[in-house]
Write a structure and sequence with these properties.
By secondary structure, the chain is an alpha/beta fold. The protein has a single domain, classed as Rossmann fold, CATH 3.40.50. It is 38% helix and 26% strand. It is built from nine helices and twelve strands. Strands 1, 2, 3, 4, 5, 6, 7, 8, 11 and 12 form a ten-stranded mixed sheet that branches. A two-stranded antiparallel ribbon has the order 9-10.
């Protein structure tokens, strides 16, 4: 019995070591409107080109919220880029001007699409990335940004939206869901988050392609759902792999 327990502990430690050993690089790039974006690039082992995933955080949050999912995604074969959206985390410089999201107008929130565009461009130029197999995932306002960007960049293969809204800070999604066309989308929310749960049901009715809904009973908002629902990461990655087939 003691030897079995020792083997179990060793197995758990080995899995944890694999999960947190994914090589990472701290990266920066500059948007078309001169904002310096900071990100973390999570790389796969091996020489072949891999599918890629951009992860977009919630308002008032930062890229580190996605660290566990990013490392899990690397283990399943994805290259991952997480970024601090402008006015958040380390992404607070537009030339010499300091940015703070708390002072943003709706027009400045809309300009965050430049952050997403630059992140996608960065990944497409990464040597280890299959530029034809790129997906976006976002939480809360990051979900709205993911959908709005994918609606105009038809090369985005699939999107995952955690707690999107029909409108956050002027970033709307209904017309964008129609424009997104026949590409697959995964919509995730919790019933105790009334606005987001209502929003994903509305967006699902507007989708013109495969739209899977995952509605939890009590899991909170955005990336907080990972704490309440430990299987959420696996659900997302399994769906992304199936969407790529």
């Amino acid at each position: 019995m003691r030897s079995q327990r020792l083997l179990l502990v060793c197995g758990i430690l080995f899995c944890a070591a694999r999960l947190f050993s994914a090589p990472t690089q701290e990266v920066t790039f500059v948007t078309a409107d001169s904002v310096t974006i900071h990100g973390t690039l999570y790389l796969c082992d091996g020489d072949q080109k891999s599918p890629a995933l951009v992860l977009l955080h919630m308002l008032r949050h930062k890229r580190q919220d996605w660290d566990v999912l990013a490392r899990e995604a690397v283990q399943t074969g994805f290259v991952v880029l997480t970024i601090d959206l402008r006015g958040h985390g380390q992404s607070v410089k537009e030339g010499s001007r300091t940015l703070d999201f708390k002072e943003f107008s709706n027009a400045e929130f809309a300009a965050m699409l430049e952050d997403v565009k630059s992140a996608v461009s960065f990944l497409r130029n990464e040597a280890s990335v299959d530029a034809n197999c790129l997906s976006l995932a976002g939480a809360s306002i990051g979900a709205n940004l993911a959908l709005k960007y994918a609606a105009i960049d038809t090369a985005i293969q699939s999107i995952v939206l955690l707690s999107p809204g029909l409108e956050y800070r002027g970033l709307t999604t209904e017309e964008e869901m129609k424009s997104y066309g026949k590409r697959p989308v995964l919509l995730i929310a919790a019933r105790d988050d009334d606005y987001s749960s209502d929003s994903i049901q509305k967006l699902a009715t507007l989708a013109r392609g495969p739209a899977r809904q995952q509605l939890y009973e009590s899991a909170g908002h955005g990336t907080f759902m990972f704490q309440a629902e430990p299987g959420l990461g696996k659900l997302i990655l399994d769906w992304l792999k199936s969407a790529a087939e």
